[in-house]
Amino acid sequence: MNAFTRTLAVLLPVVMLWGCSTAPTTTDADAGGDAAMTTTTDSGMGSAGMGSGVEVGEVGGSEVFSGDPLTDPNSMLAKRTVYFDFDKSEIKSEAREIIEAHARYLSANPSVRIVVEGHCDERGTREYNLSLGERRAKAVQQVVSLLGVSSSQVEIVSYGEERPAAMGHDEDAWAMNRRVEFIY
Question: Could you tell me where the beta strands, DSSP code E, fall in 25-100?
């Protein structure tokens, strides 16, 4: 019970801050090129679930996506990696929007299951990196759980340093390897 109380004491302020922030209207500055305006239903996922045919289009409506939001390259759901600082498992503010989008999708689609994979850079012992990768994956799992996703939908795995995204031995490569990935 004591560990639960401590966890709740740490996570409650985070959730409150998340709840106090206002979500920006759906502009996509990360897609590169022209800023695109997207249109979605209230939940962002459609009311019928995966096959709902959610439409996403540019300002002016010249390009429209219809289908599963997981396959839309301009959707926040296309971003399936969040990055961490060295030796940290705290979620960065930049990752918040990505995690929230996946949580909304999972809440709207209770039959969908994901694996949250924790990864580390090569520095540190194998055992330490496995533990750090697990802490990172659990941090993401806790946030999606607090946002309404059933624990039965989320499995966590830590690969530590075993599956690097970048093979270099410099800060750029290490930064790419300190991550959590959403695997659908």
Answer: 27-28, 36-37, 54-57, 64-67, 81-83
